[in-house]
Every structure is written in structure tokens, then in C-alpha cells.
Amino acid sequence: MEREDEDTTRERRRLFRRALSSLLGSIEAAAAARACRAPECNLYQLMKDREKMSSEGEVRNWCIQVFQGLAYMHQRGYFHRDLKPGTFIIASESFVKCAI
């Protein structure tokens, strides 16, 4: 029984690291892209429409919020299987939400 729990935990950690790696790549791409004009948009729109690059501080803030949110979900046994720029909502200049 304990062996199964350890295997499950390892698999969850592996999936979590893969998701974070993919997410970080997407957010780094957003740093070199454009911002949305609407008061609330997703990260894909931000990357597509922004006319100037996001600052390193903005991107770092978004990454921290996303990682904290994912860690919170994973601690409670939930996993998001469709992480992509379009699933993250930029609610304001400094607030990110994950669309579930």
C-alpha cells in the first residue's frame, strides 16, 4: 500500500514539474509579446495583441501567482490537464486567475 502511495506521489510530482515547465515556457513567451486592450484578457490574447514587451517584474509576478495557484490545487488533489496561455486570465496589471 505504501509503495503504491509513493508511486502515485512520484507520478504527481513528475506531472506537476512537466506542467510547470510548459507553463513557464508560455509565460516567458508572453514577456516578449503584446498586451491585451480589454480590462480582462487571457495570456494568449496578451501575447498576441500587446504592442510592447512586458517587464521582467510583471512576468515574474504572474509566474509566482500561477505557481502558487497550481501548488494550492495540487495539494488538494486537483490537476489541470489543459494548461496553456488561454487558460490564464490576466484580471489586472498584477492579478492572474486560472480558468478551470
UniProtKB/TrEMBL annotation:
Concerning Pfam families, the annotation shows: Pkinase
List residues of the Protein kinase domain: 1-100
Q: Name one GO molecular function term.
A: ATP binding
UniProt KW keywords: ATP-binding, Nucleotide-binding
State if Protein transport is listed as a keyword.
no
The name under which this protein is listed is Protein kinase domain-containing protein
Q: Which organism is it from?
A: Arachis hypogaea
